[in-house]
Design a protein that fits this description.
This protein is mainly alpha-helical. It has a domain at 38-94. 76% of the residues lie in helices and 0% in strands. It is built from eight helices and no strands. α1 (4-24) crosses α2 and α7 (127-140) packs across α8 (150-157). The radius of gyration is 20 Å and the shape is extended. One of its GO terms (biological process) is L-leucine transport. It is found in: Cell membrane. Keywords: Amino-acid transport, Cell membrane, Membrane, Transmembrane, Transmembrane helix, Transport. GO terms for molecular function: L-isoleucine transmembrane transporter activity; L-leucine transmembrane transporter activity; L-valine transmembrane transporter activity. This is Branched-chain amino acid transport protein.
Length: 158
């Protein structure tokens, strides 16, 4: 049986391998030839991982919310929405995309706690409630405006 973490490790190692190829370009006399296909696939994979509806909708909303202080909002969003994910990819590329290699530096307990926190954030703490709330707002609330919101949300989560 193959678990989702094995697919994630394969995917991350592919990205890390190609990022390492790009980073080594020009630094070694015996340099590997960077395949154009690998660069395109890695570029699209990174784009798909980091660009979502929030990156399309949230910046204009921030700009309108901050008004004349939009530069501060742009810098904050740039650091948190671009800088931190890019830093994460760069760090993981140093560990060949392996979460185990990365987390083992902090010890076994740290690796277990961090891995558990990541899995919980991906699923039950962030993604599932967000999906349930979106489903309610888009599919239930327009047709049943006076319905108690807990009924469809509990039904969705069951």
């Amino acid at each position: 049986m193959i678990y989702w973490t094995q697919y994630a490790d394969i995917y991350n190692s592919f990205i890390a391998e190609n990022l390492n190829k790009v980073a080594r370009r020009g630094l070694s006399a015996k340099m590997e030839r960077i395949n154009t296909r690998d660069v395109i696939v890695t570029g699209f994979a990174l784009f798909a991982m980091f660009f979502g509806a929030g990156n399309l909708i949230f910046p204009p909303y921030l700009g309108s919310l901050f008004g004349t202080k939009w530069v501060a909002a742009m810098l904050g969003f740039g650091i948190t929405g671009i800088g931190l994910p890019l830093l994460g990819v760069m760090v993981m590329s140093q560990y060949d995309g392996s979460f185990e290699k990365f987390a083992d530096k902090g010890g076994k307990l740290f690796a277990i706690l961090l891995g558990s926190l990541v899995v919980l954030c991906i699923g039950p703490l962030l993604a599932i409630p967000r999906t349930g709330a979106t489903t309610f707002e888009v599919a239930v609330k327009p047709f049943f405006p006076n319905m108690n919101p807990y009924i469809p949300i509990i039904g969705f989560l069951l």
